[in-house]
Fold these 3 entries.
Entry 1:
Amino acid sequence: MDEYYAQIFHTIDVGLVMLDKDLRVQQWSRWMEQHSSIPFHKIIGRPLFDFFPELDHPRFLMNFKMVVKFGNSCFLSQKLNKYLFPFKPAGAFAGEFEYMQQSCAMFPLRDEKNALKYICISVNDVTETVACETRLVEMNVRDGLTGIYNRKFLEAKLTEELDRSKRYGRAFSVIMIDIDHFKKVNDSYGHSFGDTVLKSTASMLQSGLRTTDFLTRYGGEEFCCLLPETECSSAVIVAERMRANAEALALTHGGNPVNISISLGVAGATAADTPSALIVRADEALYTAKKSGRNKVVASQGRAA
């Protein structure tokens, strides 16, 4: 390799690998050395798969053969592949991914007679970019105060889960939740303490759910919980547990205990339900719970739990 090209090859902040048609490594940049801990002298002339057997899969081989056959460049999408080489991530976002997120490409290198000589793979570390994009997406669907999902997320996820329950004939239930006398809490203790009540309630509700359930802030002091694969009768049990946990919350203001309670309405999805109809039925059950004394769980169609 020409001296000046070699300096670029080994200095650029991108991983570069040159392979022959038999997938033997002909060049291995310093960036690749640093992130793989495989020194240049150990890998040169050796089959790439000896060091990275996980690359020996149909998608990688198909892309490689296409570059060899047609002489075109091939870009490997990070969104589809996540990474090509299983390198550990570094930097501020290292803890967010098991492996470095990579944007990669394969392209042909030709000799002076325009004959294909090598295939070069470039590896860009895009971990920071992907982490920032992920955070932005999360911020867009999270409630700023409580950290749980927001109304925008609820509307999309409710439609998705209801469609899935109908398609596969699976149970699906919704719980609407309201903090009792929340206006009185704000008036008596101030909005800052009201925010504390909202955050504590959200944390309590979330702690009792499965990873497949979704808790959202519906608006104000109202929350909505989506329970896939859950019959209405089972959702009532979940709601009753939430109600009891709210009573047990240890909140204080100025050293004095403050007790709160919640009312809950439960609705199990039917074949006739639309997303809005299901929410309306759960909301009507919640209204019944509040009108009949609060601190209660009521199932849809007025059946008290």
Note: The first helix runs from residue 3 to 11.
Entry 2:
Amino acid sequence: MQPYTEEFYNWQQAESKSSAREIVPFVCELIRPRSVIDVGCGVGTWLSVFKECGVENFMGVDGDYVDRRMLQVEAERFQAKDLKQPLHINDHYDLVVSLEVAEHLPVECAATFIESLTNLGPVVLFSAAVPYQGGTDHINEQWPEYWNELFSAQGYKVIDCIRKKFWNNDRVRWWYAQNIFLFIEQNHLENYPRLQREAECVEQSALSHVHPKNYLTKMDALKNYTNMMETPDLNNMPLGQTVNFFKKIVSALPGKTIKAVKRKLRKPKAADAKVVAS
């Protein structure tokens, strides 16, 4: 996973806080965790909401690149770990959280990452980006069935009770409403009668759903791209309209393409480098 900018974490915090304040109380009602660990916690936004809900024993784990000055929880509640490697953490937690993290890790790390999560506790609150969802440094976007197979290999059962509760909640960002599941170790299901009933209702071959807001976002981008192909006469177009036209072109490009173009523009040409050197 690559280091992220202050701008990225500010955006992430703003997008996550309202979602966490809706979802966390419901999860606490279901699980009643006394201890929580968030793997891939970023600046600890979700952990800060668990703290608001009365959880006193909690820990956040993420890469060493996280700016400690931006943490939303105490610095001693954060551990720097390489998430591409197996996690070796001695403590065990009632609830393990990992939201929109797994898609940032190489595909060859996926099974090990899920094993690390299940080693930390009997209940996992998990979400990961679906194919073509898009986002910063997404390199392994998969459908929920893919992750369900990996959890199932560790003896965990999928519970799909959160999405249907928050699907139409405008205070919950669509990627959480679309992707979030509980996974519970089968031997512990009897401790949660309500979730045991939910587990019996899950259709494991039909976990993949696309949220309308996700769909419309992608369709708007496609529409912009289609409009881009109908190239107007730029020679006779007012300057303001020309600028807007090229803005539409850029907005229709995939994020990776935009990054590649920016890198290319920042990289000096060989001829320019010679001039500077002389």
Note: The chain has two domains: 6-207, 214-277.
Entry 3:
Amino acid sequence: MTAPDTDVIVVGAGPVGLLLAGELRLGGARVVVLERLAAPTTESRASTLHARTMEIFDSRGLWDGADSPASDPRGHFAGLPLDLTLPGSRPGLWKLPQYDTERLLGRWAQGLGADVRRGHEVWAVTDTGEYVEVEASGVLRAAYLVACDGQDSTVRGLLGADFPGHDARRELLRADVDGIDVPDRRFERLPDGLAIAARRADGVTRVMVHEHGAPVPVRTGAPAYDEIVRAWKRVTGEDISGGTPLWVNAFDDTTRQLTHYRHGRVLFAGDAAHRQPPIGGQALNLGLADAFNLGWKLAAEVTGRAHVLDTYHAERHPAGARTLATIEAQATLLFGGPEVDPVRALLTELLAHEPVRAHLAATVGGLDTGVHLPHLTHPGRGLLLGPGAPLDRDLPHAHAETWTLLRPDGHVVWQDPDQAPPPEVYDRWFGPARKEP
């Protein structure tokens, strides 16, 4: 057998790939990250972080010595106001440009020893059954490869992986624009479409516009700013042609999900595994949850400690399908015309009921995937708590009432008031007991 050059190759140095790289290093795996771009992005792109993501960042100490952004409880579901307040350490949402998220995760992952190589575009992938061979700038071999290379994943295309779903039906144009003066709009529904405008502290305004009934073109790149200017004029009557566009983008409601997140020694995470419109920031947060679930499992596999890798697809594929269905429901209500107004009115009434509000807040915030105590798993290891064990260093009077076993990602796999986990539970998630060297 040809010896691999590293344990894992991660394709893509966006937030998902960088979080995964750090998790792999915490678990003792060697990792090389291959990124097509020669330098990190300077575009804001995905800028909304939700409660589960902030729990993940807290659990790894990513804010230690750094200022985390301020939280805002004001979220939305399909453009309808939604209070995201829930029990927990991180209720609400946070606004952080993607380049800051990448800087934070990149510094952490590289500090742990991840090898991030920029300007390396992958153009061939071969799974021999014993290792994966990647051709980029040279040939690199690894025990496993994880594709985190986005919605137009090169790796997914090279493997011909089954990616069912539907193509675009509706589109939203957006841009970050300097030098314009338009009123802030929070999902303003107008006769000819939808308009959103949010002015940042630095004076740059993000504008987003959807036109009812507009055909969705086949795009090979970003739209021209003039296209957004004309659409904004038709929907709002305002002229933003004098502004300076800093970032221009379009997204549509294409929705697809891989049939299998694992193909032999190749796995998929983030938008490479599922494509969805980035409504409310759920797409980025879904991808980060993929990486957090996969990292410790893949590290355990390549180091021989435990064999739980197949639980990645078993857990994350249903979670992805549920989130995609939620996003698609929102897209229908958000982009629809007068025909969806009765449904929006009914949902507005339902949101006044606390159980409905709390359910949707947990769904949007990514807190609907089981019981987890992320603040106790800072080192990236499993943890057993006995009755009376402290639960939070900031809450000295909070103690566990049960025997509780946590995975490295903070998910609870055992709770019992009287009995500690039997050996088979430890073996299942952490492998047979052994002495540390």
Note: Residues 376-430 form one domain.
